[in-house]
């Protein structure tokens, strides 16, 4: 086990933000932390980074108990949503800053910083000022600065949430590439499930300071282990009956045109591009969310035949 978070707790006054929180991460894993606002994601990162002190429990990194280490002694780098770059320094100086306390000669530090700029695809940006950069470029600089020290763990706290949709997709692929190229161990906090799904080796879903579920993307999506995970991850139609919870994902429901054998009617439709999302009212009054590819085109008012197999939440 490369990183072991062993039963940590953190409270602010009477607010128990993390309680008996346990998480183990292997070397070279890319973990995504997901969960609703205020569930404690940033607090977990801050405990690992050493920016806040835990009330109890231990953090072991690469067989070393780092629980009481200063942040600068932990070999952990954090990238925040707000970049945290120095506006009066050039790009190269910002990246080199990470090496300031490492006792490395300036020329060598410049070379290392330049290598890192090449990796984040900002090869010719070294002499630019920070305020001459776009949001995406700034985030690449922040990434380069945190990587220049060769951290054992890279922590990313919603690094892409200030960027537009296209840039987010581009940069998340970059994060995945850099994670692989540098054999990093990475924890990424995100609000964006698609982002998490597209890059995570493993998803950790948090609820009120605890881990609600954990697993590969497919585990989390196809085998939710509780109602919170089912409701939080993706979209689903949920039916609670006789103390059991039944569900069906909108894309698992089949729709077909049917004049004489219809059992439902389309009552709402949203065109989402590649996908179309419908609300379908069954003859028994039940309303279902259904998603299809856009090559199947129904309209509001169409009588349809709807079929599906409910799954049971175990
Ligand atoms: N310095 C602090 N003092 C007091 N309470 C705090 C402090 N930092 C965080 N909290 C509380 O701890 C809880 C968890 O906060 P945290 O920032 O970890 O949530 P989060 O999951 O990162 O949320 P978001 O998705 O909104 O960033 C919240 O209830 C928050 O109010
Ligand atoms: Mg946060």
Please explain how this structure is put together.
A hairpin with a 3-residue loop joins strand 14 and strand 15. Strands 6-7-8-3-9-10 form a six-stranded mixed beta sheet, sandwiched between helices. Strands 13-17-14-15-16 form a five-stranded antiparallel beta sheet, with no helix packed on it. 33% of the residues are buried. It is globular. The two termini are 29 Å apart. It is α+β, with helices and mostly antiparallel strands and 314 residues long. The structure holds adenosine-5'-triphosphate and magnesium ion.
Q: What does this entry show, briefly?
A:
The chain has 314 residues and is α+β, with helices and mostly antiparallel strands. It has helices spanning 41-49, 91-97, 106-119, 135-147, 165-181, 193-199, 217-222, 227-232, and strands spanning 3-12, 15-25, 30-34, 56-61, 64-65, 76-79, 153-157, 186-189, 202-207, 210-215, 237-241, 244-248, 254-257, 264-271, 275-282, 287-293, 303-307, 311-312.
Overview features:
binds magnesium ion, 8 helices, single chain, 314 residues, alpha+beta, six-stranded mixed beta sheet, binds adenosine-5'-triphosphate
Count of discrete alpha- or pi-helical segments spanning 4 or more residues: 8
User: Helix/strand/pairing class, anyone?
Assistant: alpha+beta
Dominant shape = globular
Count every beta strand, where a strand is a DSSP E run of 2 or more residues: 18
Question: What percentage of the residues does DSSP assign to strands (E)?
Answer: 25-35%
The N- and C-terminal alpha carbons lie at a distance of: 29 Å
- Helix share bin: 25-40%
Mean pLDDT: 94
Outline the low-pLDDT stretches: none
Round the Cα radius of gyration to an integer and report it: 24 Å
Strand order of the largest sheet: 6-7-8-3-9-10
Query: Which hetero compounds are present in the coordinates?
Result: adenosine-5'-triphosphate, magnesium ion
Largest β-sheet summary: 6 strands, mixed
The H-and-E topology, N to C, reads as: EEEHEEEHHHEHEHEEHHEEEEEEEE
Multimerization status: single chain
């Amino acid at each position: 086990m490369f990183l072991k978070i062993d039963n940590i707790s953190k409270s602010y006054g009477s607010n128990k933000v993390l309680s008996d929180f346990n998480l183990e991460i292997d070397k070279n894993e890319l973990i995504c932390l997901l969960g609703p606002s205020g569930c404690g994601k940033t607090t977990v990162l801050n405990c690992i980074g050493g920016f806040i002190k835990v009330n109890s429990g231990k953090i072991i990194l690469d067989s070393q108990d780092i629980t009481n280490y200063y942040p600068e002694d932990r070999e952990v780098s954090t990238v925040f949503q707000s970049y945290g770059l120095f506006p009066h320094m050039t790009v190269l100086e910002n990246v080199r800053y990470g090496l300031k306390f490492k006792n490395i000669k300036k020329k060598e530090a410049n070379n290392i910083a330049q290598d890192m700029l090449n990796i984040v695809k900002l090869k010719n940006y070294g002499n630019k000022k920070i305020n001459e950069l776009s949001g995406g470029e700034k985030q690449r600089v922040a990434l380069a600065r945190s990587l220049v020290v060769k951290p054992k763990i890279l922590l990313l706290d919603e690094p892409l949430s200030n960027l537009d949709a296209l840039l987010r997709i581009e940069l998340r692929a970059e994060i995945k590439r850099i994670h692989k190229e540098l054999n990093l161990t990475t924890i990424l906090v995100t609000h964006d499930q698609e982002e998490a799904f597209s890059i995570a080796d493993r998803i950790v879903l948090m609820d009120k300071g605890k881990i609600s579920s954990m697993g590969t993307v497919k585990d989390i999506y196809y085998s939710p282990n509780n109602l919170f995970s089912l409701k939080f991850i993706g979209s689903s139609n949920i039916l609670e009956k006789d103390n059991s919870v039944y569900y069906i994902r909108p894309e698992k429901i089949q729709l077909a045109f049917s004049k004489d054998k219809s059992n439902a009617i389309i009552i709402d439709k949203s065109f989402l591009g590649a996908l179309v999302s419908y609300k379908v009212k069954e003859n028994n009054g039940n309303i279902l969310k259904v998603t299809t590819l856009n090559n199947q085109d129904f309209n509001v008012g169409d009588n349809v035949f709807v079929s599906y197999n409910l799954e049971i939440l175990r």
